[in-house]
Structure formats: C-alpha cells, structure tokens
Amino acid sequence: MTDAFTLPSIAVLGAGSMGGAVLRGVAASALATDGIVATNRSRAKADELASVPSVTSLALDDEPDANVRAASKAGIVLVGVKPAMVPDLLREIGPHLRPGTIVVSLAAGVTLATFEEILGADVAVFRSMPNTPALVGKAVTGLAAGSRASEDDARVIRRLFETVGTVIELPEHQIDALSTISGSGPAYVFLLVEELTKAAVAKGFAEADARVMVEQTFAGATALLAATGEDPAELRRRVTSPEGTTERAVAVLQEARLSDVFARATDAALARAKELAAGA
C-alpha cells in the first residue's frame, strides 16, 4: 500500500452508531478524497455528522430520495440500516448504482446471497462485522467477500475498515461466530469491569477511585499484552506468585469454570445470530 492510495467516493446509508463510527474513521484518515455522503432518517441525526470534515449529511425527512441520491454517486456504498430494512433499501438503490460500485453490509444477519440476488450480477458485495471500538479506532472488523468481488475490491474495502482498526478476512459462514467473540466481546469486557468495580466498592473504596483502579488496570493489562506480544497465559503466570494472593484469587476464578461460561455465552449469542438470520 502506498501513500498515494485513496478511496473512491463513499455513501453511508443509515449512518447510525456503527456507520457513523466507520464514517468518522474514514474521514479522519483523509483517504476519502472524493468525499462521503451520509444519510439518516431524521434531521437531528443528520446534524450530528454535518460538522465532520468532507462529509455531506442528508436527512430523509427533508429529502425522501436521499439514499438514491447518495448511492448513485458513490464508488462504495455502506449499508447500515436495520436488517429488516435492507431488502427494500437494496431494491430502491439497485437500479441507480454506477458500474463498478462496491456495496458493503454493516447489517447483522443479512446474507451475501440476499445482497447479490437483489442487486444483480454487476455489483460486488461484502459483508462486514465491525465492533463498537471503531469509535476510538480500535475495532476488529470481520470481512467476507461475495462471489463477484475481486482481489482489488477486497484490497479497497480492507483499507477502508483499517481506518478504524484491525481487519480479519474470513468466509461468510464464520461471520456469525466472529460476532459472538469480537462483536459482542466489548460487552463481556464491560461486564467484567462493572463487576470488579462493584467488588472494589464493597471493600470500602469510593466509586470514583474504584473505577480508576479497575478501568486503568484493564487498559494497562491490554496495553501490556499488545506491547509484549506474549501469550496471555504467560503474562498471567508472571503476575501469579506461588502461594501468593493472586494465586488464591485465580484459583477461585478457575473453580467457576470460566471456560465453560464463555463457551455457553458465545454459543447462546451464536444461536441468536442464526435466529436473526432466519428472521426470528
């Protein structure tokens, strides 16, 4: 990848929390030299993005044809509307897409087959699964290519999502499983922070101090993991002195069979993803 690389014009249809996060990352990267057009239902939502550099933010309440207007001029179209709304949106914009346009799904549970069936043979499509740390440029994005996508198409879309973090390319059948790990994963981490903070408060610390201790411990531990490249089990062993306090605490956690807990949790998330894909 050279410094001369730029992205084609981009439309983000349904620029909510995830679409908006990706939009902000791309805008900050300065790679979208041909501009970004975002659409939202309400003027209030559109106004939230109006100040982002290089972004034109449209409201469907003001311009009912805003999705068509945005998509018809774009080289890349990100579809971020709710999953149930995707088929109707694709039927609306499909006849107006330019040759060579790449369409990328941000919608959970909507298959590549659905996109390809509605949009036709001339459109390359991708299915993506970013996570909420995209808001701070630390996302993990799963990316699956449709049957009509070329290697050049994949290079462009990978670069787009790299503006908000790390990209993992994988076959579509693994997207739902990825969503149970990196997609839902931030919630698991926040739950652990929440519960450890409660434990600190129960031991007499003020809530503000408890939050600092716990949140900075998580931030520091993950930074150490990233900086050293060590296996997490090895880093855990280095903290756990024989017959010390940490060893006693870790033994309690291991007795809770956390491996089983996480297996059951991710299995439950995967089952729900399959239900959503089936329209349940």
Please describe the structure with a list of short key phrases separated by commas or semicolons:
280 residues, alpha/beta, Rossmann fold, ProC C-terminal domain-like fold, eight-stranded mixed beta sheet, 12 helices, elongated, amino-acid biosynthesis, EC 1.5.1.2
CATH topology of the largest domain: Rossmann fold
Sheet with most strands: strand arrangement: 3-2-1-4-5-6-7-8
CATH architecture tag of the largest domain: 3-Layer(aba) Sandwich
Helix content: 40-55%
SSE pattern: EHEHEHEHEHEEHEHHHHHH
Average pLDDT metric: 94
Cα radius of gyration in angstroms: 22 Å
- Taken as a percent bin, the fraction of beta residues is 5-15%
CATH superfamily of the largest domain: NAD(P)-binding Rossmann-like Domain
Low-confidence stretches: none
Domain count: the total is 2
Strand-pairing-aware structural class: alpha/beta
**CATH class membership of the largest domain:** Alpha Beta
Query: Which term fits the overall shape?
Result: elongated
The N- and C-terminal alpha carbons lie at a distance of: 42 Å
Main beta-sheet strand count, sense and barrel state: 8 strands, mixed
Number of DSSP-assigned strands: 8
Total of DSSP H or I helical runs spanning 4+ residues = 12
